[in-house]
Design brief:
The protein has helices at about 1-30, 35-50, 75-85, 130-140, 145-150, 215-225; strands at about 50-55, 65-70, 90-95, 100, 105-110, 115-120, 155-160, 165-170, 175-185, 190-195, 200-210, 235-245, 255-265, 275, 280-285. The protein is of the alpha+beta class and about 290 residues long. The strands form two sheets. The protein has an eight-stranded antiparallel beta sheet with strand order 3-4-5-6-10-9-8-7, covered by helices on one side. Strand 13 (about 255-265) and strand 14 form a beta hairpin. Helix 2 (about 35-50) packs parallel to helix 6 (about 215-225).
């Protein structure tokens, strides 16, 4: 009889514990989710300052960990396979960069970044569609998957002489902004390829709270208002992913660390504004409103 009562007590205790945990989880989800009132408030505030939002806000702001990565290591043979279809190249080593010369192409590598130039490709886009440009870029990307892995869905931008097809890297469904691939396609084919890549090793450290996207927009607004020449703007995309806060530096342990960041894109500006999601501060001066 006593054993039966003890079992009932344990069962009741477990049920109560599950209810408490469910309540805490629900409360945590509520705290990490933007309310409709917050959404309306930021829309109105941006509008009052001449900024139009043509995209949906990111309403979830669950805690995130940092990612650790390392600087890439390339062999000459790997680069020839990735960018020259196996063609042999000659190499020029400089103080800050290494240049690989093919018959009609030149690849400049500097740290984690590289730029391939195909000098004989005809410019222009008169008979080129965005769909064909995207397919051309994808075929090139497929040849590099063995080394660089997979990427997000592309963003296709029309330029004066062609289309720029841009991709972000992916790690366990998270966007990796610092791992990027951009392919400039013209009527004559691929004219230029730009890549930035650090192999991701995994999550590191405990998960930390991040700011909501409306807070990131407030940071953007404060920076925007510092420049009196800017009176109107149109935001067409907001993304949450990982980026290198100090892109050209390794930490004392030789690792490269990636932190959660918001990217805010304007219709009239190619480079995004970058907000550190941990600190809700604008980072990378090259993305600031003053430049």
């Amino acid at each position: 009889m006593e054993w039966s009562n003890a079992k009932k007590f344990v069962i009741v205790l477990l049920v109560l514990l599950n209810l408490v945990l469910a309540g805490l989880n629900y409360r945590q989800r509520q705290e990490n989710t933007m309310t409709s009132a917050q959404e309306r408030a930021i829309f109105e505030l941006l509008s009052q300052n001449g900024i139009t939002l043509y995209t949906n806000l990111l309403t979830d702001a669950s805690p995130m960990s940092r990612l650790s990565a390392e600087m890439p290591s390339y062999s000459k043979e790997t680069l020839e396979r990735l960018f020259f279809n196996g063609e042999k190249t000659t190499v020029t080593v400089g103080a800050d960069s290494t240049v690989y010369h093919g018959k009609d192409s030149t690849l400049t590598m500097e740290g984690a970044s590289g730029t391939l130039e195909r000098n004989g490709v005809r410019m222009g886009k008169e008979n080129l569609s965005p769909i064909v440009a995207e397919r051309t870029a994808e075929r090139f990307l497929e040849q590099t998957e063995f080394f660089f892995g997979v990427y997000d869905e592309p963003v296709v931008q029309e330029k004066e002489d062609g289309f720029l097809v841009s991709y972000n890297g992916v790690y366990k469904r998270e966007s990796i902004f610092s791992n990027s691939f951009s392919v400039f396609v013209t009527e004559g084919g691929i004219r230029r390829v730009m890549v930035s890549y650090c192999p991701v090793l995994g999550y590191t450290g405990e998960k930390k709270d991040i700011c909501h996207s409306d807070e990131a927009l407030l940071t953007f607004l404060r920076e925007w208002r510092k420049n009196e020449e800017k009176t109107e703007a149109a935001i067409n995309r907001i993304e949450l992913g990982y980026d290198r806060i100090e892109p050209n530096r390794k930490s004392a342990d030789g690792m490269v660390y990636l932190e959660p960041c918001y990217r805010i894109y304007l219709m009239e500006r190619e480079e995004p504004y970058l907000i550190n999601a941990y600190t809700c501060q604008m980072v990378k001066k090259e993305y600031s409103a003053a430049e």
